[in-house]
Every structure is written in C-alpha cells, then in structure tokens.
Write a structure and sequence with these properties.
With 273 residues, the chain is α/β, with parallel strands linked by helices. It has one domain: Collagenase (Catalytic Domain) (3-Layer(aba) Sandwich). The strands form two sheets. Strands 1, 2, 3, 4, 5, 6, 7, 8 and 9 form a nine-stranded mixed sheet that branches. It has a two-stranded parallel ribbon with strand order 10-11. It is globular, with a radius of gyration of 17 Å.
C-alpha cells in the first residue's frame, strides 16, 4: 500500500476506535483535582532563544545516555530573534542533523481536558490530523498512533519515561503558549543520532483556544502543527523572511497560517526522513 494512503487509513481507524471513549468524557474531568501546573526545573539551562537544555539522562529503552531539550513557543514579540537556522531560500531548521525517529513508530497519549474552550473530541482528532500532515510530507510513518486518557500526565523534565504525552496545564510564564520537550541523541556520529521521546504541554491559564481561528484566541491547529514539528525533529525559525513557515517561532491571536506546511517545512522534514 502507498505510504501516504497507509498514514491516512491508520489515522481514520484510530479516530473511530477512540470515538467511544471520547463520547463518554466531559469537560468536568479537571474538577477531579487541581489544575495541572508546569514550569521548567531550576536546573534547566538556556542554550539559545526559547531553547533550554534539561541535561542528560539514561534512556532504558535505547540503553543509551540521551539529552533533553525544552522548546518554548511564546506569543508575538515575547519570542526573540536569534540562533535558529533559516534563510530566504532554505527556510527550515533541524534540532540536529539526522536526529530523527528510527525503527517502529511509538504510540502517544493525550489528556484533552482543558478549561479554555476546546472540545475533547476535537483535541484528539486534530492532533491526529496534524501528525498526518508531517507524515504525509515526509512519506513516512513517524509518530505512530495516539490514545486519549483522563489520567494525569506529567511532562518529563529530568529523564524520559518511554511515554509520549500531551496535555494542558497552567504554564509558569504567561507569554508561553506551549512547550515541547524532546529527548534524544543530538551529537556524535550522525548514524547514532535519534529521538527517543517527546512531550507537549499547552497553556490552560492565560490563553483561550479556538477551533476556527477566532480573533483574540489561539488557534489550536495552528499551534499544534508547529509543536508537532519539534516532535519529529524540526527546530524553530526566527528569520522574518521565513515568517510563512509552520516552524516560524512567533505566534499571535487568530493566526492560522501555520496549519499547513510551507515549502521550507516540507524540505526540512524530507532532509530528516
């Protein structure tokens, strides 16, 4: 079967299977406990604009030492221009050359509960669709299938736990829209470089979310497609000549242009896969 058709078929099957679970959930899930909170550990070291090193840890699955990085997606001018790659003719950036997912795709889990306007079913289905955009562009099944849950999830800032997690939380910085954490091997021989885990946390305190690009709200599909670019190995861009790319580091209310991959995004992901 054609790889692109396989990606689409798998996504449809996953959505159908998850439908029963989502139909029985409600936005009251957060009422079971205090709103989740997230902040970077004090040990995190800023190594570039909006990029923080989480240090090294042992990954049991790969049986290797890995590095962790937290990538901060800020609103408008709160993101600074700086060290990301990108030119007018080649608007893409990689976390590291050949640092990508290898072998069988891993599964991911999402707790879609939020208090800022997103339907639970939409969160799961949209994430699945956004992953398919990157996989279709790369013609490669990269991130695997997702599963919704109502259990508490915790992003891994000290070591990978072999689970790729997505959830909403009160982020410590009011300018932060979302955070993606990626663990992997980013240095040394290129044949040994790889990604081993990703987690994502979306704001549930400062920003209202929209499913349709409403003014005054952050468009979830716009932000999630960008964040998932980090999960497959893409870096941020801050060159203004690359402002139409999904991986451009700025975001604003009502923005939807990052929903669809641009030429540089497609070139970049094909450099990896």
């Amino acid at each position: 079967m054609n790889k692109k058709l396989l990606v689409i078929s798998v996504a449809v099957a996953v959505l159908i299977a998850a439908g029963g679970w989502l139909a029985n959930q409600s936005q009251t899930a957060l009422a079971k406990g205090q709103k989740a909170k997230f902040q970077l550990p004090a040990s995190a070291v800023q190594v570039a604009d909006n990029l923080y090193s989480l240090g090294t840890a042992f990954d049991k699955k790969s049986d290797q030492q890995v590095e962790g990085y937290a990538i901060i997606h800020r609103k408008d001018g709160a993101a600074k221009s700086g060290n990301a790659k990108g030119t007018a003719t080649a608007c893409y950036s990689l976390l590291a050359k050949d640092a990508k997912w290898k072998g069988t795709p891993e599964s991911w889990v999402v707790n879609p509960a939020n208090t800022r306007g997103l339907d639970l079913t939409f969160v799961f289905s949209n994430l699945t669709g956004d992953i398919a955009k990157w996989e279709t562009a790369a013609d490669y099944n990269i991130l695997g299938d997702g599963t919704p849950t109502d259990i508490t999830l915790i992003a891994d800032t000290s070591a990978p736990d072999n689970q790729n997690e997505v959830y909403f939380a009160d982020l410590s910085d009011p300018n932060t829209i979302a955070v993606t954490i990626v663990w992997g091997i980013f240095g040394g021989p290129s044949f040994n470089r790889r990604l081993v885990e990703w987690d994502q946390v979306y704001d549930d305190a400062t920003y209202d979310w929209s499913m349709s690009g409403e003014p005054g709200k952050m468009d979830f599909e716009n932000i999630a497609t960008h964040e998932l670019g980090h999960s497959v190995g893409m870096g941020d861009l801050y060159n203004s000549s690359c402002s139409n790319e999904t991986m451009y580091g700025y975001a604003t209310y009502g923005e939807t242009k990052k929903r669809d991959l641009n030429a540089g995004d497609i070139i970049g992901v094909n450099k990896l896969y």
